[in-house]
Amino acid sequence: MTTFAPLGPTYRPTGLAGWLFTVLALAFIANCFVAIDRHSHSVSDTFYGLFPYAGVTLLLWDRLAQFLSRTPG
Fold it and tell me: How far is the C-alpha of 15 from the C-alpha of 50, rounded, in Å?
Protein backbone atom coordinates (compact mmCIF):
# COMPACT_ATOMS: atom_id res chain seq x y z
CA MET A 1 0.00 0.00 0.00
CA THR A 2 1.31 3.42 -0.91
CA THR A 3 1.12 6.41 1.38
CA PHE A 4 0.74 8.97 -1.43
CA ALA A 5 -0.85 8.78 -4.87
CA PRO A 6 0.02 10.94 -7.89
CA LEU A 7 -2.43 13.77 -8.57
CA GLY A 8 -1.36 15.74 -11.62
CA PRO A 9 1.99 17.42 -10.91
CA THR A 10 1.72 16.79 -7.16
CA TYR A 11 0.60 14.04 -4.79
CA ARG A 12 -2.30 13.37 -2.48
CA PRO A 13 -2.04 11.53 0.81
CA THR A 14 -3.82 8.18 0.84
CA GLY A 15 -2.50 6.50 3.98
CA LEU A 16 -2.33 7.47 7.62
CA ALA A 17 1.39 8.30 7.44
CA GLY A 18 0.80 10.52 4.41
CA TRP A 19 -1.96 12.45 6.13
CA LEU A 20 0.09 12.77 9.30
CA PHE A 21 3.13 14.13 7.46
CA THR A 22 0.94 16.53 5.44
CA VAL A 23 -0.77 17.90 8.55
CA LEU A 24 2.54 18.26 10.38
CA ALA A 25 4.10 20.09 7.41
CA LEU A 26 1.14 22.49 7.16
CA ALA A 27 1.14 23.06 10.92
CA PHE A 28 4.86 23.87 10.81
CA ILE A 29 4.35 26.36 7.96
CA ALA A 30 1.40 27.96 9.79
CA ASN A 31 3.44 28.26 12.98
CA CYS A 32 6.31 29.87 11.05
CA PHE A 33 3.87 32.26 9.40
CA VAL A 34 2.47 33.42 12.73
CA ALA A 35 5.94 33.86 14.24
CA ILE A 36 7.31 35.74 11.23
CA ASP A 37 4.21 37.86 10.64
CA ARG A 38 4.27 39.03 14.25
CA HIS A 39 7.50 40.96 13.59
CA SER A 40 6.93 41.96 9.95
CA HIS A 41 6.08 45.45 8.81
CA SER A 42 4.75 44.58 5.36
CA VAL A 43 3.55 41.75 3.20
CA SER A 44 6.94 41.49 1.52
CA ASP A 45 8.65 41.17 4.93
CA THR A 46 6.38 38.25 5.72
CA PHE A 47 6.94 36.66 2.31
CA TYR A 48 10.73 36.97 2.44
CA GLY A 49 10.82 35.64 5.99
CA LEU A 50 8.47 32.73 5.34
CA PHE A 51 9.85 31.62 1.99
CA PRO A 52 12.92 29.70 3.28
CA TYR A 53 10.85 27.71 5.77
CA ALA A 54 7.86 27.03 3.53
CA GLY A 55 10.00 26.34 0.49
CA VAL A 56 12.22 23.79 2.18
CA THR A 57 9.26 22.16 3.95
CA LEU A 58 7.29 21.81 0.72
CA LEU A 59 10.32 20.47 -1.15
CA LEU A 60 10.85 17.89 1.58
CA TRP A 61 7.15 16.99 1.48
CA ASP A 62 7.31 16.57 -2.31
CA ARG A 63 10.42 14.35 -2.14
CA LEU A 64 8.90 12.17 0.56
CA ALA A 65 5.59 11.94 -1.32
CA GLN A 66 7.44 11.01 -4.49
CA PHE A 67 9.42 8.31 -2.68
CA LEU A 68 6.40 6.90 -0.80
CA SER A 69 4.12 6.87 -3.86
CA ARG A 70 6.18 4.12 -5.49
CA THR A 71 4.83 0.62 -5.31
CA PRO A 72 7.19 -1.94 -3.81
CA GLY A 73 8.93 -4.26 -6.22
Answer: 28
Q: How many CB atoms lie within 10 A of CB 25?
A: 17
- Collapse the DSSP code of 71 into the 3-class scheme (helix H, G, I; strand E, B; otherwise coil) and give the result: coil
- Per-residue pLDDT of 11-62, as tens digits, reads 999 999 999 999 999 999 999 999 999 999 999 999 999 999 999 999 999 9
Complete DSSP assignment for 26-69:
HHHHHHHHHHHHHT-SSHHHHHHHHHHHHHHHHHHHHHHHHHHT
Confidence label for 72 from pLDDT (cuts 50, 70 and 90): low
**Nearest of 22, 20, 24, 54 to residue 37 by alpha carbon:** 54
